[in-house]
Amino acid sequence: MAKEFTDEDDALLAELGIEVEDKKTAPRTPREERIIAGFEEIQRFVETNRRLPEHGESRDIFERLYATRLDRLRELSECRELLSFIDAQGLLDGAYVSDEAHEIELDDDALLAELGVEFGGITELKHVRSSSEKKAAEEIAGREKCEDFGTFKPLFEQVQKELKSGLREARKFELKAEIEPGRFFIVGGQKAYVAEKGEVTITDQGRTDARLRVIFDNGTESNMLMRSLQRALNADGDAGRRITEPNAGPLFSDETADGDEASGTIYVLRSLSDHPVVAENRELVHKIGVTSNSVDKRIAGAHLQPTFLMAQVEVVATYELYNINRSKLETLLHRVFASAQLDIEIPDRFGRPMKPKEWFLVPFFAIEEAVQRIKDGTISGYVYDPSSASFTRA
User: Which of 69, 88, 89, 113 is deepest in the core (most CB within 10 A)?
Assistant: First the structure.
């Protein structure tokens, strides 16, 4: 006989975060409603995490519950038939249905028991955790609201844009040495930014560690240890990722190899314009651009083009590019110096006012530093400060 669906069962399912419709108005039997609600919980997990729930001590207790529940649902033909109308994700397809499965009662109590979970009373959930689970819980616990998240939100938005454009990549996390201030990771399905790193200490086991301030893209933060973040990333398996710096690739001709394809040139120009603003700041006013042609061809007829301030220019420096997207690199350079963009208006040949966008009030040594930081992958997390003509941590 099927187990009667009682108020105690409602309380249990509520404790597990499963919504149960009022059985008095439900057109289906209580057990069917319970099965559907449980399956919808799995669907929400898959939709949120873009993967199936998995077994294993490193996984959250509820994920392990979903994984076990999904295994049972796949075994039960009556459940597969019941759920087929909502299984748009195909979670139940391709499973083997054993003869014994038809006789198994789908019971969350039994499922939790298999996971090592015991109940004390109706609503108090006692979980007998392994030492590794306790350690993982301690490491992830303590997240709280990030009160100054507005400072970090633009960084997360920019990282997402750079991932989408290809300037950054999400690669499998490998080494603790990768955990440094200014770097981004993906842990537990969330982007994490290492904002601060405290003094490095030595553990009882002779290993280095340090306290971190880690900001998450959901607006929370954690004061966790470096090794705690490392363990969390490793526990995620292939899902634990580090987000690379916006390294444009092999920039310079002395780094080319067989098969590399030339893709353009970064050029830095100085204007010979007699415009008062330019004349007074000639050593600081620079145009930074990227071209697929030779620089000589690019600047030909400069005195006729508003983009060159309707004046001749002199070439300060050039950097040859290989195997990279020119427009993305140019966008990155302009973003780096956005705070120092020159606000100037120049009339074109017909007297129409024009505002060139590629000129910056910045010393050449700062441009050299920006190019070097792009080359070695350390530009992320830095902003250019016009007041000090230097790069500082974001």
Answer: 69
**What is the chain's Cα-based Rg?**
30
DSSP letter at 103?
A: G
Given the structure tokens 């353009």, which residue do they identify?
264
The pLDDT score that the predictor gives to residue 99 is 37
Under the banding of pLDDT at 50, 70 and 90, the label for residue 344 is: very high
* Per-residue b or e along 271-305, where b marks 16 or more CB atoms closer than 10 Å to that residue's CB: bbbeeebbeeeeebbbbbbbbeeebeebbeebeeb
Q: Are 244 and 171 in contact (CB under 8 A)?
A: yes
Cα 341 to Cα 22, 305, 328, 344, 391: the distances in Å are: 62, 19, 18, 9, 15
Per-residue pLDDT, averaged over 210-235, amounts to 90
For residue range 124-162, what is the model confidence (pLDDT) as tens digits?
434 444 444 445 444 554 688 999 999 999 999 988 887
Nearest by Cα to 371 from 302, 301, 290: 290
Q: Choose among 263, 264, 315, 260: nearest CA to 287.
A: 315
Nearest residue to 230 (alpha-carbon basis) of 203, 259, 257: 203
Please provide the distance, in angstroms rounded to a whole number, between the alpha carbons at the two ends of the chain. 65
- Encode pLDDT of 37-55 as tens digits: 888 888 888 888 888 888 8
User: 3-class secondary structure for 263-323?
Assistant: EEEEEEEEECCCCHHHHHCCCCEEEEEEECCCHHHHHCCHHHCHHHCCCCEEEEEEEEEEC
Asked if 53 and 61 count as a contact pair (C-beta separation under 8 A), the reply is no
- Orientation of helix 61-75 relative to helix 30-49, angle to 10°: 120
Name the maximum alpha-carbon separation found in the chain.
95
H or E element in which residue 163 lies:
helix 149-165
Q: Which residues contact 245 (CB under 8 A, 6 or more apart)?
A: 168, 183, 377, 378, 379, 380
Element (H, E) at 150: helix 149-165
Tokens 């108020």 label which residue? 7
Alpha helices, DSSP H, located in 50-130: 61-75, 77-83, 108-114
**Backbone CA torsion sign across 145, 148, 152, 154:** positive
- Quick check: helix, strand or coil at residue 114? helix
Percent of the chain with pLDDT over 90: 20
Find how far residue 187's CA is from the centre of its chain: 9
